Every structure is written in structure tokens, then in C-alpha cells.
Amino acid sequence: MKIERCEEERLNHHVGIQNHNTSFRVTDLKESTQYDFEIVNHQKAILHTDGNECPQEVIEEFLFYSGFINHIETLEGTIIYHQPKKKVMKVPLLNIQPSQLYINEAKLNRLLTWIQKPEDIIIPIIEEGNQWISIDGHTRLKAAELLGFSEIYVYLDEYEPYIDDFVYFCQKEQKFNIRDLPIITNEAYQIKWCLFCESYFKSKEV
Asked: Last residue of some domain: 41, 66, 82?
């Protein structure tokens, strides 16, 4: 079974989706099935699919990108995932330390087609001392900056040791908040950031 995340930030694969959604395409043997998770609010998501039961691996993949969700149900109302609610809070946008060096222009432009209000943005952070550090969602932070949002919604996620290194890389390059991250083309992003990350993690395997 192969699971691929659909790059489009808003899809119309299933009629009736009104909110932002994250979608995955699953290929098993010769069949391909799409699973659209409609994010209703900061706790709940609804699964839209033409397939049968959603594989647990797909749910886990969705939660990797949307860890703030604690309740998922099907369009028919069947609960397929439920956990205690995570604490979501608002913090000043410019008080968040990035852990990424660049912003992908193509991805940013896709986000700007549907983000309209601060509630549309929520990112995972960790807290170290008096510092909030974003561990994902940097493109959303940049969208918030461009749209003039002074505060955004965040939730606390788990600490990973590599984050310290990436914060060091950012601070070494004088990148202390989202305003400091340049927007570059998708092609440049793949070279400057994706290859950089790939090289970093390979070095940790030695």
C-alpha cells in the first residue's frame, strides 16, 4: 500500500466539502482511493471517501500533519478516531522562533487562495524556556504575516532533538521570526532546503 499526500491545499474531489482539507491518495495493487479529511475546526475532522474502511495508516498520516485534531468521524457520523482535546492557544506571530530557513513560493501561493482569517491557521510548537519554536507550518506563518495577522493559533507538540540544530541554523543566519524568512521559488527551495535537510538527516544515520 502506497500513501501519497495530495499537494493541493483545497480539493473538490468530494462534493460538499466547505472547509480546508488535507487529502491522501492510497494505491493498493491496481486500485487508487482518495481520502479527504475536512477540517471543521481546531478539534474535529470529517472523512470523505468513496472507499471502504479508512486504513489506520492513513489516519496516522493525517494526524502527523494535523496533530491538533482529536476527533475524526465519517460523513455518516461514525467515529473513527477520538482522543482527549489538545490545548490550543493564541500567541503573537513575531514571538515564534522558526526552525526553517526558507519559504516555498508555490506552496505559499496555494495557501493564500483559501486562508481568510486567523482561525484558518494553526501550527505545532514546542516551548523551551521563554521561547516558542515552530516545528512545522512555516508557510502558514508567512501567510499570516502577509495577511496582517498579529496572532495565530498554536498547540504544543513533542520535542525532537533535531529541532535544536535547526534553530541554531536559523539563528546563525539571523532568522529570529517569520519576517526573516525569504520567499524563494519551488526549484530553489528543493535545492536550498530539501537537499539541505536530506543531507542533514543522512549525516545523523552514520
From this structure: 82
